[in-house]
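Sequence in, structure out. Go.
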Amino acid sequence: MKSLIKIAIVLMVFASVVACKKDTRPNYQFMPNMYEPVSYEAYQESDAFPGGVEAQLPAEGSIPRGDHMPFEIENTTEGYDLAKASLVSPLDSMQIDAERAAPLYDIYCGICHGKKGNGQGTLVKNEKILGIPSYDDAGRAITAGSIYHTIYYGKNAMGSYANQLNEEERWQVVDYVLKLKADLEK
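Output:
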């Protein structure tokens, strides 16, 4: 008799488990806030925006996060001439690192300008682009300012590298280009 009661209890527990399980509805959630996040309405009425609720422009004069600083000299021929005449490197001789600048030059500049700055990069040798001048061309008379302006804005077929190189890296590359120019003029 006792075994019959035990069998009946086991069958009742089994029946209740099977009867309560439904594949069509999810199981009980112990912490529902982890599964169903609280949503916030981005453009709801607020005292912070008295003129209406809309996307706001950044405050005037604000600078985006990161290393980006605006360049005061504009992207014009006059701006290029101004940079060529007046812009100098803020790095002193202790901050210049040719071992760091050489790989940056090879990655971003050497493919067109060549490892030595003679205008014989891989793309020029393969005739993919033409007309890359050497750094020692007398008619160019490049300076630190003109190189920086060209890296920042690009020139002719060359695009800007302002997004790939931060300000300090750009000045490192400028110094390396001037070193290559001096080596070619020897």
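Check: The mean pLDDT is 82. Helices lie at 2-20, 32-35, 77-86, 98-108, 110-113, 122-125, 144-153, 167-184.
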